[in-house]
Specification:
heterodimer; A: mainly beta; 7-stranded mixed beta sheet; 4-stranded antiparallel beta sheet; B: mainly beta; 6-stranded mixed beta sheet; 5-stranded antiparallel beta sheet
Chain lengths: ~110, ~110
C-alpha cells in the first residue's frame, strides 16, 4: 500500500526553537507539497517541490523554508518558531498529471 | 490571488436526505476539481474528482461541474450519520507549476 508518512503526529516546541517536520513518500513521486490547516481557513499551501533540490513558494511561505535532498523526502523547517505557527501541517505528494489523493497523516504542532 | 470559496456551514440534514455542497473558484483556466472528506483530526480523503462539464456519479456521490459559471458541487444521496464531516473543495490551478488550492471547507452534520 502506497504511503506518505510524517515524522511526528504531535509536536510541542518553544518560541524561537528551530523545528523540522519531515515527510517521506514511497511512490517515487516527483511532486511534494506542504500545507497548513487552521480552523475556518482550509488548507493553505506553504511550499512545494517538483524535483530534487528544487522548491517553489506557495501562498504563505513567510517564516518557513524547505529542503529536498532526496526524491522521497521533503522537509519543512521553521527557522524560529512562533506561536502563530501553531497549526496542523499536512504533506502531500503527486505524480503529474496530478492525482491528488496522497496525503500524510498530519503533524499537529503547538508552539508555546 | 487564486481563490476557492465554500460556505462554512454547518449544513445540517436529516438521515436519508440529499446533502448539497457548493463551491466556486476564481480561475477560468482551471481544469481539475476535487472533493475531499475530512474527519476531525484526520487528513483529507479524496472522494471525487471531475474534469469535464456535467455530472459524475460514484455510488451515493455526484459531482457537478459548470466551468462557464465557475461552479462545482457535490451531492450526497441517502445521507448517513457517518457522512458527518468537513467537505473540502479543491481546484488545481494551472499556469507554471500546477498547485492544488483548497476552499475553507463545509461542515456537514447528518442527524438521525
Amino acid at each position: 500500500d502506497v504511503k506518505v508518512t510524517q515524522s511526528s503526529r504531535y509536536l510541542v516546541k518553544r518560541t524561537g526553537e528551530k523545528v523540522f517536520l519531515e515527510c517521506v513518500q514511497d511512490m517515487d513521486h516527483e511532486n511534494m507539497f506542504w500545507y497548513r490547516q487552521d480552523p475556518g481557513l482550509g488548507l493553505r499551501l506553504i511550499y512545494f517541490s517538483y524535483d530534487v533540490k528544487m522548491k517553489e513558494k506557495g501562498d504563505i511561505p513567510e517564516g518557513y523554508s524547505v529542503s529536498r535532498e532526496k526524491k522521497e523526502r521533503f522537509s519543512l523547517i521553521l527557522e524560529s518558531a512562533s506561536t502563530n505557527q501553531t497549526s496542523m501541517y499536512l504533506c502531500a505528494s503527486t505524480q503529474p498529471p496530478g492525482l491528488w489523493k496522497f496525503f500524510g497523516p498530519g503533524t499537529r504542532l503547538t508552539v508555546l | 490571488q487564486k481563490e476557492v470559496e465554500q460556505n462554512s456551514g454547518p449544513l445540517s440534514v436529516p438521515e436519508g436526505a440529499i446533502a448539497s455542497l457548493n463551491c466556486t473558484y476564481s480561475d477560468r483556466g482551471s481544469q481539475s476539481f476535487f472533493w475531499y472528506r475530512q474527519y476531525s483530526g484526520k487528513s483529507p480523503e479524496l472522494i471525487m474528482s471531475i474534469y469535464s462539464n456535467g455530472d459524475k456519479e460514484d455510488g451515493r456521490f455526484t459531482a457537478q461541474l459548470n466551468k462557464a459559471s465557475q461552479y462545482v458541487s457535490l451531492l450526497i444521496r441517502d445521507s448517513q450519520p457517518s457522512d458527518s464531516a468537513t467537505y473540502l473543495c479543491a481546484v488545481e490551478f494551472s499556469g507554471g507549476y500546477n498547485k492544488l488550492i483548497f476552499g475553507a471547507g463545509t461542515r456537514l452534520a447528518v442527524h438521525p
